[in-house]
């Protein structure tokens, strides 16, 4: 079946973009892991649908704007969550704290995201699944209620977020802790685990990339104009930043990403991946329109200890769309 799938030969794709042609024992294990995950997709969807789902069909042939993540419209806090602020550097960092376990877990949201817009199901469900953990979700510096001042999207803004997240967890007395990072938060998590590998116990990332490709640079440019977004995509951010300020702040984020692409050859954090020592769980929505599919095997092949789970019909927001399944998978991994 795979042999007849030209030019969408999935095994050839994995080998080419992952470096598996130099197959040592560790790479072979990761190859088989990806292979069997994707075999499930083949059986379920058929090769034609799989070829599209993992992104072989060029993004830019689509006339519509790539679907952004649908964030939570209802950001009302749950009764048992504590929401406060702490001074970290120049910012009063807003955070949500839930649970009283002796271990720490920080939730890192996506671009312009906050604790409540990006992690409400996790704030509600993870404490009962992880009773030995204290769960902390934050608004990164310059986002949400962690303003003013506004975020500056320089070449090192991810590194600055990583430093601030470490300082926040230190304020709570966690010398070591685990990380859940989505999209931009996943990038921050990769940097944290790579720069201070002894301080990160478990790492979970999804929708994250260690570098920017030409296709992704084009995607960022195509979603710059928020007036073209659906109201479902736009309204959660407008409620936080205002209808006037949200387009300006979002455009600044796009400029920041394009600056990394142009001035750093797209390299966000490739150099730190091999330093990661924490067991790492990579989750992926097979229909994710925001990252090209080569990032998944790149992470699996570069980070020393990894596991993979694919949501066949998932897009960028798998933790919101499939929150119960997602939380069960993640808590099982962290509890190991």
Q: Main attributes?
A:
336 residues; alpha/beta; disordered N terminus
Could you characterize the architecture of this molecule?
It contains 12 helices and 8 strands. It has helices at 10-18, 25-45, 47-53, 115-129, 157-171, 184-195, 214-222, 231-241, 245-263, 295-302, 318-321, 323-335, and strands spanning 82-88, 91-98, 103-108, 133-138, 177-182, 200-206, 280-285, 306-311. The chain has an 8-stranded mixed sheet with strand order 1-2-4-3-5-6-7-8, sandwiched between helices. Helix content is 43%, strand content 15%. Helix 4 (115-129) links the parallel strand 3 (103-108) and strand 4. With 336 residues, it is α/β, with parallel strands linked by helices. Residues 1-25 and 39-64 have low confidence and may be disordered.
Shape: globular
Give me the side-by-side strand order of the main sheet: 1-2-4-3-5-6-7-8
- Total beta strand runs: 8
| Mean pLDDT, all residues | 84
Distance between the termini: 36 Å
Biggest sheet features:
8 strands, mixed
Residues in helix, %: 40-55%
Quick structural gist:
The chain is α/β, with parallel strands linked by helices and about 325 residues long. It contains twelve helices and eight strands. α6 (about 185-195) links the parallel β5 and β6.
């Amino acid at each position: 079946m795979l042999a007849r799938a030209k030019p969408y030969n999935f095994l050839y794709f994995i080998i080419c973009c992952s470096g598996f042609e130099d197959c040592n024992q560790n790479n072979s294990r990761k190859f088989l892991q990806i292979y069997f995950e994707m075999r499930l997709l083949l059986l379920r969807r058929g090769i034609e649908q799989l070829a599209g789902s993992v992104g072989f069909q060029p993004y830019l042939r689509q006339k519509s704007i790539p679907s952004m993540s649908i964030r939570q419209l209802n950001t009302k806090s749950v009764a048992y969550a504590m929401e406060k602020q702490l001074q970290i550097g120049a910012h009063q960092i807003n955070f949500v704290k839930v649970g009283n376990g002796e271990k720490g877990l920080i939730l890192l949201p996506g671009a312009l995201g906050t604790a409540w817009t990006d992690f409400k199901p996790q704030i509600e469900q993870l404490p009962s699944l992880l009773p030995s953990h204290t769960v902390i979700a934050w608004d990164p510096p310059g986002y949400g209620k962690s303003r003013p001042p506004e975020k500056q999207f320089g070449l090192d803004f991810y590194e600055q977020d990583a430093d601030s997240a470490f300082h926040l967890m230190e304020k709570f007395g966690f010398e070591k802790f685990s990380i859940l990072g989505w999209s931009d938060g996943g990038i921050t998590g990769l940097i944290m685990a790579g720069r201070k590998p002894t301080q990160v116990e478990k790492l979970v990332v999804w929708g994250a990339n260690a570098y920017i490709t030409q296709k992704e640079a084009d995607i960022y440019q195509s979603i710059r104009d928020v007036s073209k977004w659906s109201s479902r995509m736009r309204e959660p951010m407008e409620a936080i930043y205002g209808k006037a300020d949200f387009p300006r702040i979002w455009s600044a984020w796009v400029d920041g990403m394009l600056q990394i692409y142009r001035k750093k050859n797209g390299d966000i954090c490739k150099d730190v991946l091999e330093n990661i020592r924490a067991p790492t769980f990579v989750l992926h929505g097979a229909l994710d329109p925001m990252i090209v599919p080569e990032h998944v095997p790149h992470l699996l092949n570069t980070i020393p200890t990894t596991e993979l789970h694919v949501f066949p019909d998932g897009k960028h927001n798998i933790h919101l769309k499939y929150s119960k399944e997602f939380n069960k998978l993640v808590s099982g991994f962290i509890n190991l």
